[in-house]
Amino acid sequence: MNILLTGARGFVGARVLAHMQAAGHRVTCIGSEDLRGSLTGDRFDALARRFEQARPDAVIHTAAISDTGFAERNPEESHLANALLPEAMARLSARFGCRLVSCSSDQVYNGSPYILSHREDEPCAPVSVYGRHKLEGEQRAAQAYPETVSLRLTWMYDLPAYRLHTNDGFPLQLLRAAVQDRPLRFSVSDFRGLTYVRSVAENIEKALELPGGVYNFGSENDLDMYRTALEFSRALGLGERAEKLILPAEGEQRSLAMDGSLLRSRGISFEPTSEGPFRMVKDYQM
Ligand SMILES: NC(=O)c1ccc[n+]([C@@H]2O[C@H](COP(=O)([O-])OP(=O)(O)OC[C@H]3O[C@@H](n4cnc5c(N)ncnc54)[C@H](OP(=O)(O)O)[C@@H]3O)[C@@H](O)[C@H]2O)c1
Q1: 68 and 50 in one domain?
Q2: Ligand 1 atom nearest to 106, measured from its CA
Q3: Residues 87 and 52 in one domain
Q4: Is the N or C terminus of the chain more exposed, i.e. has fewer CB atoms within 10 Å?
Q5: Is the Cβ–Cβ distance between 276 and 194 less than 8 Å?
Q6: Is 130 one of the annotated active-site residues of the chain?
Q7: Residues 212, 232: one domain?
């Protein structure tokens, strides 16, 4: 396939690029310099020319302002990047008749009444600027182009790998705590899925075949964050030290965990959250 990819220097985009190239697809990247700010008039036309030159079969849109704190402090920038940009990508994908897979977030569920596993069809009322803009981005894209596939991603992680940008993910936080011998507390009433980013990159290739709609796209998890941290520590080989490093904390009951049934019914599944870090360590050893 001819794929147009945004956000290729980002955490997810870099892995998607590597995976798609290894799978034999031809990938053209559009950098954030052509996507930042307001995309009206000449700038929208310039983007349209990129589509015309690349003639993509599919667009994978990962570019965004992904830092929730930054989005909270800079709501106008977040609105452009997280709500209006997916709409622009959808309008162009509709015009050029190509598939569109666009990245959204489980933060759209942050603010929903407590349910252990959220489903795509429930009403969402996100509390954060980022969550609200990601939800608006899904809605605007669907309106502009009903074939848009919006993927609600969980918090993702990887270990640092040569040349690939890595976020400050969950395993790194645990490893840092171990190196500094500084205990960390995790809530026994906070639930969310965490997904190995390379599983996401692989499954995004399969998502190119999905019918338009919104999909929960990540590992399921029925463990609270304290137990999740213990599982990750086990995978990272922290052994008995984990019991001293990872401590339980009380907190408000919250769940961002997602139900993956809709995606499974379309033939795509993720390993459970507790298995992801074991796969990551195995990949890293290769
Ligand atoms: N990381 C997570 O755990 C997580 C969790 C849930 C959802 N998501 C979603 O997954 C997608 C990928 O996230 P990520 O972690 O890969 O993000 P990232 O590492 O922050 O990369 C995002 C990329 O977006 C581009 N970008 C940055 N600012 C921009 C702006 N103002 N306007 C347009 N483009 C901009 C840049 O692309 P270039 O460097 O190529 O120019 C940047 O590298 C995003 O939609 C994010 O909201 C991520």
Answers
A1: yes
A2: 6
A3: yes
A4: C
A5: yes
A6: yes
A7: no
Q: How many structural domains does the chain have?
A: 2
For residue 265, being part of any structural domain is answered with no
CB 280 within 8 A of CB 235: yes
Show the ligand 1 pocket: residues with CB < 6 angstroms: 7-13, 31-32, 35-36, 62-66, 77, 81, 85, 103, 105, 153, 155-156, 167
If asked whether residues 75 and 164 sit together in one domain, one would say no
Q: Are both 17 and 103 inside the same structural domain?
A: yes
Q: What CATH number corresponds to the domain at position 56? A: 3.40.50.720
Q: Which amino acid is at 210?
A: L
How many whole angstroms separate alpha carbon 153 and alpha carbon 217?
5
pLDDT, tens only, 180-238: 999 999 999 999 999 999 999 999 999 999 999 999 999 999 999 999 999 999 999 99
Residue 20, domain extent: 2-154+197-217
* Residue 266 counted as domain residue: no
My answer on whether 49 and 185 are in the same domain is no
* 183 Cα to the center of ligand 1, angstroms: 30
Q: What is the pLDDT of residues 174-193, one digit of tens each?
A: 999 999 999 999 999 999 99
Q: By C-alpha distance, which of 44, 69, 70, 59 is closest to 8?
A: 59
At 161, the pLDDT band (50, 70, 90 cuts) reads confident
Atom of ligand 1 nearest to the CA of 13: 16
* Residue 171 and residue 53 in one domain: no
Q: Return d(Cα 67, Cα 56) in angstroms, integer.
A: 29
Enter the tokens of residue 60. 């994978």
In the chain, helix, strand, coil percent, each to 5? 45, 20, 35
What does the pLDDT read at residue 187? 96
Whether the pLDDT of residue 286 is over 90: the answer is: no
Could you give the C-alpha distances from 171 to 100, 157, 224, 274, in angstroms and in order?
Answer: 31, 7, 16, 12
